[in-house]
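Why do we care about 3D structure at all? Because function follows from shape, and shape follows, mostly, from sequence. That is the central idea of this module. The next example makes it concrete: a single protein chain, its amino acid sequence, and then its structure expressed as tokens.
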Amino acid sequence: MKKSVFKRAVSALMAAAIGILPCVNAYAETSENGQELVSMMEHYGSDYIDDNLDTKTQQLIILAAMTSLQAYSQIEEQTYTALDLGVTPEEIKEAVYQAAPYCGYTKALSAIESVDKAFEERGISEVESQATVTEEDRYEKGLEVQRSIFGSEIGTITDDMSESQKVITEYLSGICFGDFYTRDTLDVNTRELLTLSVLTANGGCESQIGSHTNGNLTVGNTRDQMLAAILLCVPYNGYPRTLNAMNAVNAAADAYEEATEEE
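And the structure:
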């Protein structure tokens, strides 16, 4: 069996093990070592994940995490799985797009190529743009969304800032939020969970995970939803990144709840 096919087989069977494929024998012809590896992963299924995340959200989280991890052959197979489970082409593309400003545009572009291969195989035509902003209003609209999540002090450019700080402040509001969070198809709750999932897959983003834990709680997502999203991706991220992310979420959520109680 070719290496790429083996990778797809492991990915498909891993997905089945955590309860997101309707059948387990789509790629049954794995090597003996491959079968052993898949059997080691069968325990990743969890009622806790299913109780806190619906099927569509799970599919989108996996796509976003795989984009960060550059798992391009698996993204193609994951796209088939998502389509089979009722996720729309627009939602699939938005999950990959949402990852772009957090893991890098080059990774997202390569992921979209894998998605497009799956779409072509299924006879899905080009998905229309979901953009809602222009070059002229992207910063203002992004700042509005950003402040609704993180507070009115966020995103303010002041005269005493260095030029580099002004640039990154404008980028964060205009690009991360203006270009992406304002797009149609996915709501802000889903986008915040996807952002958290990409940051976890990136590794080393515990500070940003803390900030987006606050963002998730502000828009109405729960601690359990965030932890379920992180646990869902254990097979893709491994344990060190998972544990670091869980610790960051719990610490930020504890502080958020304490501050809320004091108000």
